[in-house]
Amino acid sequence: MDNRGRLSYLIDCNMTNSPNSALQANALQASDTDGLVCQGFAPPLNLKDFRLIAFDMDSTLINIECVDEIADAAGRKTEVAAITEAAMRGEITDYKESLRRRVALLKGVTVAHMQQVYDERLQLNPGAAELVAACQAAGLKTLLVSGGFTFFTDRIRDRLGIDSTRSNVLEVENGVLTGRMVDQPWGDICDGEEKQKMLLHTCAQLGIDPKQAIAMGDGANDLPMMSVAGLSVAYHAKPAVREKAMVAINSGGLNRLLEVARV
């Protein structure tokens, strides 16, 4: 049984003795309210029933794809962005190789240019701070898992008070990107498989079942972690991600999740 089935089964069991069970059962079908789509379960849920929320960063918590904006400093944004778009749509199956190709095109960009991207182009997406704060207040641990780079994830972690992160390290020599990444103790690249592994590892550390976790993302490399979480959330996502997510926020901010999982 997949994550959608586990949760709808639990909700169905809770509804069997309800006089309105027939009406509630209909709510298990997909419903769309002002760009907020739920499928496979009957909202609302209780946010406090979850113990962990895992976020993607680029185009989920923040408004940009950092690798594309870094590439702009090298005059290669169009080329890099095309690879990014194909990877996020799931048209490139080898995410690691696609990231290596993009990072190679960043060779020669300075750390000062990356700081400029952070200062001038990167913004939190609407509702990001509110959602993170609400989850923390409800007792959830927060995890940031990104196919992007520690230069940005570390800053977003500190800015939002996120508990832990996993992402990729760009190799720097004399303040300049080499076009390579640095292997880490857990592996080489944080791709979809690594995101899933990190979510499961964090659940094990917390002593919780993965169905007590929420996974939120927008791209194909978020689907593995979304597939094992109790609640999967697509935010302004690619079509393949929207189709498989239990919740799809297609308009409005990240904090619209609080309309589904209430405090």
Q: What does this protein structure show overall?
A:
There is one protein chain. With 263 residues, the chain is α/β, with parallel strands linked by helices. It has a domain at 45-64 and 123-262: 3-Layer(aba) Sandwich (Rossmann fold), CATH 3.40.50. It has 11 helices and 11 strands. Strands 1-2-10-9-8-4-5-6-7 form a 9-stranded mixed beta sheet, sandwiched between helices. A two-stranded parallel sheet has the order 3-11. Strand 9, helix 11 (239-244) and strand 10 (247-249) form a beta-alpha-beta unit. Helix 3 (66-73) packs antiparallel against helix 4 and helix 4 (77-88) packs antiparallel against helix 5 (95-104).
- N- to C-terminal distance: 27 Å
Total count of helical runs of at least 4 residues: 11
Low-confidence stretches: 1-28
Percent of residues in beta strands: 15-25%
- What is the correct CATH architecture of the domain at 45-64 and 123-262? 3-Layer(aba) Sandwich
**The CATH homology group name of the domain at 45-64 and 123-262:** HAD superfamily/HAD-like
CATH class of the domain at 45-64 and 123-262: Alpha Beta
Compressed to H and E, one letter per element, the order equals HHEEEEHHHHHEHEEHEHEHEE
Structural class: alpha/beta
- Determine the CATH topology of the domain at 45-64 and 123-262: Rossmann fold
Assign an overall shape: globular
Largest sheet: 9 strands, mixed
How many runs of DSSP E, i.e. beta strands?
A: 11
What fraction, in percent, of the residue positions are helical? 40-55%
